[in-house]
Design a protein that fits this description.
alpha/beta, 28% strand
Length: 144
C-alpha cells in the first residue's frame, strides 16, 4: 500500500477567523467551504497539503499543550528560520521561545496561531535522510 497525507483536521472555536489567519499570515489558499452557519473549510499550503478547519468544542482549552497525547503541532519547513521569523513577526506573530535544536538535526522555532494551536518552523541542513524525504515529497514546505 502507498500512503500519502491528504489533509489534517483542525477543530476551531471560530472557523472563519482561524481560516483567515492561515490565509493572511501563512499564505494558504481557501479551496472549499461547506457554507454552513458555522462553516468548515479546506485550505491549502503552497505545496498542496490541505488543512480542514471545522467547528470544535469551545469549552476545551488545551490547544497549546504540546505534551497532551495525540497530534500536537504542525511543523512547517523553511529554508531560513531567521527570515521566516522576521516575516511572520511583520505579520503579527509573536515568538515566546528562542530557536532550539531539532530532533534529528537542524533547528526549530515554535509559535501559535490565533487560537493557540502550536506550529513550528523547522530548518534542516541537507543530509541523506532529509534529501530522501524531500525527493519523495514526504517533507512539506511553505514559502513565506
Amino acid at each position: 500500500m502507498n500512503f500519502a497525507v491528504e489533509h489534517i483536521g483542525l477543530a476551531a472555536r471560530d472557523t472563519v477567523a482561524l481560516k483567515d489567519w492561515y490565509l493572511e499570515v501563512l499564505g494558504f489558499h481557501e479551496v472549499f467551504t461547506d457554507g454552513k452557519s458555522q462553516p468548515a473549510f479546506l485550505i491549502e499550503m503552497t505545496d498542496g497539503l490541505l488543512i480542514e478547519i471545522y467547528p470544535g468544542d469551545p469549552s476545551v482549552d488545551v490547544a497549546s499543550n504540546n505534551k497532551l497525547a495525540g497530534w500536537r503541532h504542525l511543523a512547517v519547513r523553511v529554508d531560513s528560520i531567521e527570515y521566516a521569523r522576521a516575516e511572520l513577526a511583520r505579520r503579527g506573530v509573536t515568538f515566546e521561545e528562542p530557536i532550539k535544536a531539532a530532533g534529528g538535526g537542524g533547528r526549530v522555532l515554535f509559535f501559535k496561531d490565533r487560537e493557540g494551536n502550536l506550529l513550528h518552523l523547522v530548518e534542516r541542513s541537507a543530509g541523506p535522510m532529509w534529501d530522501r524525504q524531500r525527493h519523495r515529497g514526504a517533507v512539506r514546505s511553505a514559502s513565506l
